[in-house]
Design a protein that fits this description.
Helix content: 25-40%
Largest sheet: 6 strands, mixed
Structural class: alpha+beta
CATH topology of the largest domain: Gyrase A, domain 2
Number of strands: 6
Shape: elongated
CATH class of the largest domain: Alpha Beta
Distance between the termini: 65 Å
CATH architecture of the largest domain: 2-Layer Sandwich
Order of helices and strands: EEHEEHEEHHHH
Strand order of the largest sheet: 3-4-2-1-5-6
Number of domains: 2
Length: about 180
């Protein structure tokens, strides 16, 4: 028996890709978040997710890495992560990626939305919105989301950064004692 290798064709993933693009919701595994933009999509089923990852990795030289979540989500879906260098071209590249996915998915661009980081607001997917909402350079990322030293230490230790401690006399004293001021 020989293996059959075939590519995806139009509408092969119809109704299997959720029409929501998430940007920078997840941490990068290929570099620092300030240097890498993480795009994520939700896909119904492991094999369609694997097919989408294969499609993305083979089709775009600007993609650093594409991968699926280690396991399925509660609803049986999988996440597809696409990591790209944080640079101004991300706006054009992300929109082109979604337009190409539309060929596999059968929907129109107007049916899709995007969310950035932890913001729960759905936005129309277009270059202008991405340029406005997503920091497209390392410097812009640092200016908008710069981490304090405690967060850097947590990140280096692999501890999730989920909350910010209040800045008051007590917490400032603790920071000073820990040498992280």
């Amino acid at each position: 028996m020989t293996k059959l290798f075939e590519g995806l064709e139009q509408n092969d993933l119809a109704r299997l890709i959720h029409p929501h693009l998430h940007i920078d919701e997840y941490k990068s595994k290929m570099g620092k978040d300030e240097d890498v933009v993480v795009l994520s999509l939700k896909v119904s089923g492991k094999y369609p997710a694997v097919d989408l990852v294969d499609f993305i990795e083979k089709g775009y030289n600007w993609v650093i890495d594409a991968d699926i979540s280690a396991g399925e989500l509660v609803d049986g879906d999988y996440l597809v992560f696409v990591e790209v260098e944080r640079k101004p071209e991300v706006a054009d590249d992300a929109v082109q990626l979604i337009k190409d996915i539309l060929n596999l998915d059968g929907r129109k661009l107007k049916d899709w939305t995007m969310r950035v980081r932890s913001d729960l607001t759905d936005h129309e997917i277009n270059e202008e919105n991405i340029r406005e909402l997503v920091p497209l350079t390392t410097l812009a990322y640092r200016e908008r989301f710069g981490q304090d030293k405690l967060d850097e230490m947590r990140t280096a230790a692999g501890v999730p950064v989920t909350t910010k401690a209040a800045k008051n006399d007590r917490t400032q004293k603790l920071r000073a004692q820990a040498g992280i001021l």
